[in-house]
Amino acid sequence: MNGDSVLNRFPQLFGGLFALSAAIVIGSFIGAGAIREVKSANDVLTVTGSAKRPIRSDYIIWRASVSSQQPTLAAAYQETKRYNARIQSYLKQKKVANEAISFTSIETSSVPEILPNGRESGNTLAYRVVQRLEVRSDQVDQITALSRQANDLINEGIPLQSNPPEYLYTQLAQVRVEMLAEATKDAKARAEAIASSTGNRVGAIRNARTGVFQITPRYSTEVSDSGVYDTTSLEKDITAVVSVSFGME
């Protein structure tokens, strides 16, 4: 039986085989295109964006203390009480609001007598009383100046020990949201600059991860993996960092 007779006798068979072959070839092209599309859809570009903003502290905490050491506890307490009265008068004179001032409970301790051999004799040599005070205020400039004028009380014989003020910023919650948006815009601008050099376009955000905030003294380069929150400086910089992954088109 020659080929023509087979073809004539089974035309449907050969037609089906041809259609199947064509379908396989077309399907191969479609499958290859789908693979290329999936690969392209999975391409991402991850960049880091940052934003920095200068801030000025809007809240201050100033701590100080006075103490007295006398042969009796009563004498030490009375002397500390006189110191406190003078300090309160001084703060009132400087127009510090009463609600901004707080005094802690009085701390008392005994001073033991030390023998020449370095051991305690069991006798009490004196008593020590300590009174701590704290000023919390949004009047930053006023309290800053006050903390620097503490020598006025020392010159009067008040044994005031003044600590450096702590400077805080109370608008961090709002600023953080704004700065994350700024950092994300910066990340997109960087991604677009990279993508344009390769002939691609930046698509939608696939993933975003925020870093820690760094609140540092003005112009400082200090950074920390756990974040920095400086309280020693009136003028600060706040820096936000975000890592963003963009789809590529």
Order of helices and strands: HHEEHEEEHHEEHEEEE
Helix-and-strand structural type = alpha+beta
Residue fraction in strands: 35-45%
- Largest sheet descriptor: 6 strands, antiparallel
**What oligomeric state do these chains adopt?**
single chain
The helix content is 25-40%
Number of strands: 11
Q: Mean pLDDT, rounded to whole units?
A: 85
Radius of gyration: 38 Å
Distance between the termini: 59 Å
What low-confidence regions span 5 or more consecutive residues with pLDDT below 50? Answer: 13-41
Query: What is the count of DSSP helices, taking H or I runs of 4+ residues?
Result: 6
The dominant shape is elongated
Draw up the topology in text.
Layout (H helix, E strand, L loop, with lengths): L2 H7 L1 H32 L1 E13 L2 E12 L2 H21 L7 E3 L3 E8 L5 E18 L2 H9 L2 H5 L5 E2 L3 E3 L3 H25 L5 E9 L3 E4 L10 E2 L5 E14 L1
Parallel strand pairs: 9-10
Antiparallel strand pairs: 1-11, 2-5, 2-6, 2-7, 3-5, 4-5, 8-11, 9-11
Give structural notes:
- The chain has 249 residues and is an alpha+beta fold.
- The chain is 40% helix and 35% strand.
- It is built from six helices and eleven strands.
- The strands form two sheets. Strands 2, 3, 4, 5, 6 and 7 form a six-stranded antiparallel β-sheet that branches. Strands 1, 8, 9, 10 and 11 form a five-stranded mixed β-sheet that branches.
- β4 and β5 (120-137) form a beta hairpin.
- The longest helix is centred in the first third of the chain and has 32 residues, at 11-42.
